[in-house]
Amino acid sequence: MQREYRFIGRETARKDGLGIVRGREKFIDDLKLPGMLQAKILRSPHPHALIKYIDTSRAAKLDGVKAVLTYKDTPPWKGGLPPHLGVLSNVLRYTGDAVALVAAETEEAAEMALDYIDVEYVPLEAVYDAEEAIKPGAPQLYPQFPGNSFPLACPWMGENSLQEVAMGDVERGFAEADIVVEGSCRYDNIPNPLPLEPPGVIAAWEGPRDLTVWSSTQTPYFLKMMLHYTMGRINVRSIAAHCGGSFGTKAVPWQLVFYAAALARVSKRPVKLFYSKAEHFAAYTLRLGSAFSGKIGIKKDGRVMAVAGEWLINSGYCSDAAQGMVAVGCGEVQLLIRCPNWAVKPKLVCTNRNASKMVRGYGGQELEAAFLPVLNLALAKAGVDPFVFFKQNYVKPGDDYFWRDGNRWVCRGIDYSAAMEKGAEVFGWKEKWKGWLKPSSVDGPHRTGVGVGVHGNADVGEDVSEAYVRLDPDATCVIYSCVSEHGTGQRSSLCKMVAEVLNIPLEAVSLAPPDSLVNPYEFGPVGSRGTYAIGSAVIRAAEDAKRKLLSRGAALFQCPAEELETKDGFIFRKDDPENKLPWKATGFDQTYMGYGRFEPDFSVPNFVMIFVEVEVDMETGKIAVKRVVGATDVGQIIDPQSLLHQMHGCLGSAGLDSAIFEESVLDKKLGRILNPNMVDYKWRTFLELPVFEAVILETPINTHLFNSVGFGEIVTSPAPSAVLMAVSNAVGRFFDTYPITPEMILQTPGKGRLKA
Amino acid sequence: MKENGLLLMVNGQSYEFKIGTGPGEVSPSHTLARTLREDLGLTGTKVGCNKGECGACTVLLEGTPVLSCLTLTVECNGKRVTTIEGLEDPETGELDPVQQSFLESGAFQCGFCTPGMIMTVKALLGDMPAPTELEIKEALSGHYCRCISHYHVLDAVGRAIGKRG
Amino acid sequence: MKPFRHINVPGVAEAVDYLNKFPGSSRLIAGGTDLLGVLKDDILPAYPELLINIKAIPGLDYLREDENGLSIGALVKLAFLARSPLVREKYKVLADAARSVGTPQLRNMATVGGNLGQETRCWYYRYPHGIGGRIQCQRKGSGPCLAVGGDNRYHVIMGGKGCFAACPSDLATALAALEGSIKTEGAGGGRIISIGEFFHPLGNALKAGEMIVELQVPPLPAGSRQHWLKYTLREPVDFAVVSVAVLTVLEAGICREARIALGAVAPGPLRALQAEQFLKGKEPIPEVLQEAAVLAVQGAKPLSKNGYKVEIARVLVLRALEASFAGHK
């Protein structure tokens, strides 16, 4: 039986809702500081080149131009993992790489100035494919990374961060298998998560070592720490504006900060850098390129005996989190299938294209999208129903796995089978599944097919969160938790949790602005950790504050604090609720500050299963997603609207549609992304909405007071491979690359009425 | 209006501008989105792609939804512009029913696309008493929302239609 | 956006005057939906000094039907054309084509003249200057067409020469099926250009200092039916991968006339004359329509990555013919 709550699980308006519908919420580009300059960036015309000569004197003399910087005069800050990129460099590694920075009084003046910077380049040979980049003789991007291979280590996840899946004895596993398949699949279309709002920052120096940064970050405190370490241990105050969508991409926009802060330092003025949409497309964050090739051995009944292969990952010209994504991807794939013998070796490669960075799905989506189609070959041979397979295999309480820190964890979450069953029932899986490569229905040239995917993440309990909760004499309270609002409703959900703990009206709870100056350490709302990790810190802080309040109340009521309770700003004995005193009676102008901290816990994976039905027009190659069912169990719903929103998010942020039309089209002769605009980059519109049903169960999970687990980050991940499966079944052949284009459908033999 | 002057009627208020390139003047290359945001401080109108491909900057020009990032301010002389800030009752602050419906349906996640969508829906419900679901989707088909709040937006539009009785 | 000067003109004569006073350094602006994107991305080697605003020219947004057919003023908005009961009733392909363009807001702004005069969507041509500099090519006056050896999935399968960019105008395809033409004004007076002559591989037939003032559609053949199909990955926003406009006349079960216009497969709208000829005098049974569909794209020379457009074009022709002939019943 679920507990009855006053706010938890109930529909409540978002705290910022009024501001949003009135157009009053302030996003980064809505902020203006006195004397603020605008920055623009001159970008490389070559995918790989050296700057032979650069002269900014003509640009610097233009009206309104206040600073022009090149690699010769930028500070020695260094970012990347391991640190490998300065502010600017004389080596340019992708078309669009920053050549020079300009700050001017107006955007137009800055843009004009770019044309007055004189540069001579020495073009170098470039490489775009990971396979090519690791060959001997390939152009080399960095002398310190021979073979274009980034070292596999992610120190901030621990000394032994997981950089492969290795256990058991794969040779023995293959020997014991009934069916062994070999295959490969590429998920290398580098889709763009593309939040509507482009990334932006404002940098202002308050002193020689004191920098204030306003940004559209998702994780303001984590950004502060990252900047502290990459910018020479300076003091950073990091303030988040309302964030117009992030999906991971805006968590740590360190490069934008480098650019703006360098210009601000020289010009002694605040500098704003707000990317154009073209820059957002061609010079910001893409998904990792991913290819799996290997061997999978299974028993006839579908039990997986061995998995061996190479996971080749293309991170573009830099890595700032890819090793972390490798670690999480290697962990997540183990949640999906039970297998005693593994030998999956990642290889992380740099190439001359725009960078892949942190994105929702964080390694797991990329690995699974490439790995599962190979597994499907084996399941098809064995005639195993993929739904049944996933249900049997998905991690259950007591199962173990190696997580990103390299340690072995034992699942102490719940069995998600009930949610899977319910999802399959709502979708009608049993009726629609006709077997591998068999359409569910055929109507003239239109064939429907179904697919299913599953995903989960134990990062819901990653990293550290701290929070304070302050009770005020006026029976209100303030939460100090450095969380920005990027669309998940997390700030409002934290208020609900605290209102529930303190049993006060939601209106009486507010959250301090997302500013690192006033809030304690917070890793931030990423990896679905908002509910469990951040929630735990906030709940504990509220409980701590409540404890302090009640222990003062104990003196007034002359009874142990345990016998007291509080509601709506009053204290009373549990056995005598009518005899109550207001908070303010506990002390003259007395406030109470509670503190809460959360330590990492990787033992509670969350879960989502996505069912899709597609319709393929065999004569034109057009694919329509007709229906999606998402199934999960979150323990306890915190906010129904926000949860449903997260589920629907499956269709966005380089998720489901990266299987059929989302891709960054890279011209591999020029090294340019050809579709850096919102006409040629395809996204789902109101007219292409599939029927979407969500199945959300609430089986209490052993996390915190509310037995709840976060959900949002994972929902895009199972979708691409599920769509690939659905299209395969509709069309009658397997695909080994994304996205599936009309051209690929039309190559299917015997598909239509017309012969050439 | 003088040759080098410009009159805009924004949310019921008149604003006069000089056309020129000096501070505070409207340059011929300034878009309506920029003038609203930078000169009038009406930052509720969002700029997403700045090329008319995402719908975020939608405002009503003489009651019709247009893309303010592809509209030159100098071409709006004497025209009536309504932005998200102009929907609520200026006296009481009461929300427009469309705003109220978006709020009640929770029809937003990050909220960056919301003002533009509200403007489109406002115009749609002004033109059509009871649009069908397909007509609603068509009207909104130029609005990009990457968080995928579409289903809640459709709910909000239905709610707004309901509010009119 | 980089600065420019801007002038409002009261009439066509003044617009033409300014165009001729600033040859090569002035551009007309009406809806602005295409031009401002071009300027913001700064894709052209020469940035205009002057924009000539024709939006406010009175009396250029008319829709008139008389014994000579339909005349459409260049400033008619796409949304107006798409909604017009007259056009929807009688010139269906034109209304459907207009309605298929872009998004509602774009159609509220964009004009019919602009739809025909817009710049190509070739993504090499359109590559933004801000990301490493614009791409030079034949169409811009120098350099090779990069689409030939590059990603040409949206480029032409017929009629390319020097440039292989596809015609982006949906109205052009519809007009071709209606045998329409374009009326212009210029320094040397006006002329009428048939839609089939308007586009060429490197641009269009407009001379320097000449502007589109009207679209003309001659009277329709009695009893004709029309059908429009546009293939895109998504219904709104997208430019055509392939579009088809057909017009058919059926008498006593026999095809008396068939016009088939293909869009986005060539530098301009393409009439499938061979297929049209084949259909004439035949009963439109499935085998005949299939044969016509195959004939419609005979001679196509797809580039490395756009062969699929040939297949889609065939299917679209077949489906459009089926629908149009079905409309006679």
- Which CATH architecture of the largest domain in chain B is right? Roll
CATH superfamily of the largest domain in chain A: Aldehyde oxidase/xanthine dehydrogenase, molybdopterin binding domain
Q: What is the chain-wise order of helices and strands of chain B?
A: EEHEEEHHHH
Strand order of the largest sheet of chain A: 3-5-1-12-9-10-11
What summary fits the major beta sheet of chain B?
Answer: 5 strands, mixed
User: In angstroms, what is the radius of gyration of chain A?
Assistant: 27 Å
Structural class of chain B: alpha+beta
What fraction of the residues of chain B are assigned to beta strands by DSSP?
Answer: 5-15%
- What oligomeric state do the depicted chains represent? heterotrimer
Helix content of chain A: 10-25%
CATH fold title of the largest domain in chain A: Aldehyde Oxidoreductase, domain 4
Task: Give the total of beta strands of chain A.
Answer: 31
Rg from Cα of chain B:
16 Å
Terminal-residue CA separation of chain B: 43 Å
Q: Return the domain count of chain A.
A: 3
Number of strands of chain B: 5
**Total domain units of chain B:** 2
Share of residues in helices of chain B: 25-40%
**What is the averaged pLDDT score of chain A?**
97
Please report the two chains with the greatest interface, counting residues with C-beta closer than 8 angstroms to the partner's C-beta. Answer: A-B, 56 and 54 residues
Main sheet strand line-up of chain B: 2-1-5-3-4
Structure notes:
- The complex is a heterotrimer of chains A (756), B (165) and C (329).
- With 756 residues, chain A is an alpha+beta fold.
- In chain A, 24% of the residues lie in helices and 25% in strands.
- Chain A is built from 18 helices and 31 strands.
- In chain A, β27 (608-617) and β28 form a beta hairpin.
- In chain A, α9 packs parallel to α10 (364-382) and α10 packs parallel to α17.
- The N and C termini of chain A lie far apart (64 Å).
- Chain B is α+β, with helices and mostly antiparallel strands.
- The longest helix of chain B is centred in the last third of the chain and has 14 residues, at 114-127.
- Helices cover 32% and strands 15% of the residues of chain B.
- Chain B is globular, with a radius of gyration of 16 Å.
- Chain B has 2 domains: 5-85, Ubiquitin-like (UB roll); 97-163, [2Fe-2S]-binding domain (DNA polymerase, domain 1), CATH 1.10.150.
- Chain B is built from 5 helices and 5 strands, in the order ββαβββαααα.
- With 329 residues, chain C is of the alpha+beta class.
- Chain C has a domain at 225-326: CO dehydrogenase flavoprotein, C-terminal domain (Enolase-like, domain 1, 2-Layer Sandwich).
- Helices cover 30% and strands 21% of the residues of chain C.
- Classes of the chains: A alpha+beta (756), B alpha+beta (165), C alpha+beta (329).
- Chains in contact: A-B, A-C, B-C.
- The interface between A and B is large, with 56 and 54 residues.
